[in-house]
Every structure is written in structure tokens, then in C-alpha cells.
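I hope you will forgive my troubling you with a question about protein structure. I set the record out below, with my sincere thanks for your time.
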Amino acid sequence: MAEAVDQVWRTIERNALLCPNDGVVLGVSGGPDSVCMLHVLLGLRDRLPLQLTVAHLNHGARGSDSDADAEFVASLAAQYRLPHVIERQDVPALAREQRLAFEEAARRARYAFLARVAQQVGASKVAVAHTADDQAETVLMHFLRGSGPAGLRGMLPLTPLTDYRLLGPFGASMATQGGHSCAPTVGLAIVRPLLETPRADIERYCAQHALPTRFDRSNLDTTFFRNRLRHELLPLLATYNPAIRARLCHTAQVLAADYELLARLRDEAWVAIVREADERAIVFDLSAWRALPVSLQRATLRQAGFQLRPGLRDLDFVHVENARLVAMNGRVGAQATLPQGLVLRVGYDVLRIAQSEQTETMPEQPLLWSSEPVMVALPGLTPLPSSVWVLQATRLSSWSIHEVAANPDPWTAYMDAETLAGSLTLRTRRAGDRFCPQGMGGHRVGLRAFLINLKVPRAWRDRLPLLEANGTIVWVCGYRIAEAAAVGHSTRHVARLRFLRLE
């Protein structure tokens, strides 16, 4: 189909994704998107000769289907006489080891693998097959999570692989399991040739050229947040505007261009306002910061948060704006709380953003930085705002009383699923909250006294997540579930809820 080829070519040219004779590692899953990308790039060889290597990571998550996918990709590469690298990783085990959601573990494993293959074959680019539909889903997902302009750009056509922060403990685990050293990613870039091509055009292209493809049944599982957007929310939005996917992609393009200018202005302002900056604190000149436009005030506060907490996925608007107003109008000593234990303080002539003295000795744990309740998906993944944590909720098909009783993780709870029916939310404590802890025979206690007795540090009590079902606290997360939610011999259905760290 000429339209798909022409669209891919325009994307490559407009964004300078590839140059003649580039070494490119193609991430091929076997699905229509990646098979189309491989076929189109082969078809462009007259205009754009490339040194292609096919790479496929078997996640080991779908048993024989995963093995069949790997065999399919190897056969496809052989058919086109392309070198290929097929590797198997036990990603479910890695997800458990690193306490990651499976989606996040799979993403990081895949990019780390592709980076290593590129290093081994001397390639400078890694091509992945994200489509315009994937872009629309990403922008909507970031919008729902409260992302700022950086997140609302969606995926970029070309991204340095170093931006993914893939090395560290996860990369080390992969390297140990796979028997390889984790390769440096400096100089490598991810390119997305299909990013402006709709999925419907890709499917038509595959049908027209009779391209065999594989189908991943997990793409239908609405337990995963992205799949819920794809199969439930976007079709609903399309009833209001049939062009919703295109509109979201246009939004990403507009914000990407605007963000590029904002980032340049932010970096110039940064040099002018920063007095001190290290891994412990960032200090701004107060009068210089207050003279900045509102947009740059917010941008520099966000940048300070990201530098001090590299694992932050985003800073919620409420936190940034509250800190900005305190910094603009507060007297000496005024302060504002930011996520992950950061505090902004107003000095005589400076603004200081640093770790709160009250939280310096606290271990890292999932906290709720949102002032509004967060709806919980059961089953599904619920991201915690301004955090690297998610709550994973699963209905168990099999379980045992022994497994429940032997649970060693305070951030994992097994609960009677019937008590969780209806509205399920995460929230922070409120004045007058009461709770019926398991083991106290239904006796109600004041939550404030309960937390004091458990020696929860004062600075963290207001951010401890509470799981509420239909207006009743059923889990003081990390500490105790409610008597009514406890699993017993008469329990028929069990739900497991556990907090997982994404970064």
C-alpha cells in the first residue's frame, strides 16, 4: 500500500531518523506493526540502504505462544536473509525480583536487550514499531496521570537511548541472567518510523502484501492500563469525535515543539537563578526566580524536583502550583511540600528545595502525594500520582490460607474480594478517621492513635495510602488490613493487592 510507505518515508525525512548505510537493529515482535516496519524498510532500500539486524526478546510470559513468536521471527529474518538475534529472558521472574509491574519490566528488558544487540553489531540506531495509535494512547495515558508538558509530548520520533535510564539494578539483573554485560547506550538512539502511521493503514498494508504475522492475546487483556484505554476509553471518545486519535497525535506534535522552546528558555533561566546545586539541594536566587514568567517558574521547579529525584515520573500540577505560590508570596520560613520527601523553603534572599529534615532517615516506600482520592482498578494497575509506584490489583484464580498467612511483604495484602466490590479508592487520612484492624474482633480505633502506636513517623502519616472500599478503610497500606476484609476459611474469592516500584 503506497500510502503507508510514503507516510513512513515522510516521517523518516522530516525527523532525520535514518541516514544511508546506518546500522539499525529492528525490534521485531512478530505482530503486524513490527512486521510492517521490517517490510517497508526493506522496500525502501533503493532510496535508503541500511544495515539491518532483526532482534527479538522472548519474555517467557506466554509459554508455547512466546516460543512460537520467537521461532516465527527467526524464520522471517532467514527468509529476508537478515542477521538476527533471538534471546529468552524470564521477565516475570525479573519483575518479581525488581518489584516491577510486568509491563514495566518487559519494556525495560526489551530496551536493554535492543541496546546490547546494537552494541554487539555496531549499530547506531534501534528501530521500534510504535504507531500513531500507540502515540494517541500514550498522550491520553499521560494526561490522565496528570503529566506536565514533557509527558504530553508523548513518544518522540527520535530519542537518545540514555533518556530511558535502563542501566542500574535492572540492567545488572538482565546481564547476570543472560550471561552478558550490559552495554553502554551513549550514542545510540531509538527511532520510530511508524509513529505517524495509523494502525489501520498498517493492517491494510500487511493484508495487501499477504504478510504473515503473530497475534499476542495479552493485547486484549484489559487488566493492563493501556489496553483499557485502547479497547474501552478511546472507542468511547471516538463517539464524541471520530478523529480523536489524530487530535491526540496533533496535540503531541504541538507540545513537542513548544516544549523544545520552553526547555531552551528554562535552561537559560536556570543558569541565571541557581546559586547552588548538588544531589542534596538546589538553591535559587529568590528575586531572580520571582522575576521569571509563570511558565518558567513552574518549569524550574519541575526541573529541580527531577534533578533531586531522578526516579520521579512527573510532578503533579497541584504540587508545582502550590510550591510556586508559596515561593512567590511566602515570608521567610514559609514552606511547601513536594513529592518524595522534598520541601521548598523561602529564605531571606533564596529559595531552597531539599530533602525534608524530618524524612531524611525514612526508608523509601509508596506514599500518596495526591490531595484527591485515586480510583483503584480491580483488576488492574493504578499509578500513584507523582510517584514511581503503582498498585497492582489481581483477582486470584487459586489461593490457599497458608499462602495468605505466610505473606512476608507488608506492601502486599490478600483480601476477601467480596468486601472490595463497588467503589475502591486510595486516599490519605482525614480528621476523625476510624479503623477496625484485623485481630481486634471488630473493635474500632482512631486512626491517629493507631499510627502513633505503630510508630509511623509523623512526617509520613499524612501521606500514607489508605485503601477505602465503599467509604470504609479496609487497608492501612503497609501496616494492617481491616477485620472485615481478612481472608478466612469461609472466603470464596480473594484479591491480591501489592505495591510495585516502576523505576
